[in-house]
What we know:
This protein is of the alpha/beta class. The chain has two domains: 8-127, 3-Layer(aba) Sandwich (Leucine Aminopeptidase, subunit E, domain 1); 141-459, Aminopeptidase (3-Layer(aba) Sandwich), CATH 3.40.630.10. Helix content is 33%, strand content 21%. Keywords: Aminopeptidase, Hydrolase, Manganese, Protease.
Amino acid sequence: MTDKHDLIQPDRGQPATPIHLVDKAGLDDFIKGLSAPQRAALAAQKFVGDGYSHAILPDGDGWFVVSGVANVNSLSSWCMAKLAEVLPPGTYRRAGAQPGPALFGWVSGQYRFDRYRSDPTPDGPRVLLTKDVKAIGPALAEAAAVALVRDLVNTPAEDMGPAQLEHEAQLIAKAHKAEFKVTSGDALERGFPMVHGVGRAAARSHAPRVIELHWGDPAHPRIALVGKGVCFDSGGLDIKPSSGMLLMKKDMGGAAHALALAQLVMQAGLKVRLHLVIPAVENAISGNAFRPGDVLRSRAGLSVEIGNTDAEGRLVLGDALARAGEETPELVLDFATLTGAARVALGPDLPALMARRTETAADLQAAGKAADDPCWPLPLHDGYREYLKSDIADLNNAGGNGFAGAIVGGLFLDKFVPEGTDWAHFDTFAWRPAAKPGRPKGGDALGLRAAWGLLQQRYG
């Protein structure tokens, strides 16, 4: 993605095309203020004030835009995003008021992933002015974080394997003078045995590793961000069908979320001691692939029987969560494209949220609603822990009955987080199967802004 920092600029009275936002309740009054030619132009374009619709009206030698929104007094992040996609390149301002939360959607709507196009189509820029100068930085930072998630997820696995994910994390660490560490090879096998077990079948160029970043004053509250970095998931020996593999470049979407959230934390200078942990692997197939029925030891000391090699994400996260817990953080947030069951239950738009503390779940849900990044809570129901029982090990990595798959995945992870730790888990899709205004088809951040809102409230 190209740099978008010029897409929002301070309004100092420079020439700009006005954008009038109207809802259906105010449409009649708006029409009364138009000239006869303008009313005719509005009617010709069949504008009735529907959300995301717009019309271009003549104004002397120039023109202006009218666009429909649900409520002019309560704008969403996305209410002007469609305009940012379809209006001619130029400079614009909202007439009579400031764009507010629509600043984020204006930038997000101009995202393009054109890395592999030999002749990218020039598009824009479309610049939006605002007098609320203090809102520019946060909007651009959030849009950049979302663009980072999209870029990483959209990149094919051949170019976004564990080594490339390490490279991206290292660039961000260097930019913010963070401590950076990578564990691989024999040290990985000793220290993160489940990460090694899942990733050992991959080619040497995609060898497994654990990426860690530390940042901030050690005297500040410790928080940990953990992200599932399965850069491609074949399913292992429990191999997926071809249709199931088609989107598996996105199985590192949890790592992309955690990395983008870490970037936001460091950019904003939150008063925290940040610990980022990303287990980066490819779940491949070869003669040394881990097998159904194998028993893997974990960093936490628990033994895990493999009921399904396609339930590998929880294995690598188990070791990563155990590592995060060793630093005694007061809050742990993890992101993972963990279960298809979460998508069956909630569809592609809503990340499943599981948290040990009801107040944390409520705060995350409220932050998501405020940021137009909704998530939905599911319970960590104790009665389903029995689904993870093993006859020969401490637990099995797969529930055998097909019930409550998302919750069972969360309960597995819960075993690796120290008791008493405030922990929340996002089972996110990290993908948008159909475009919406400001949200193109492809990789996307789902739950990122909700988590960022919580961290700002607690540590901002």
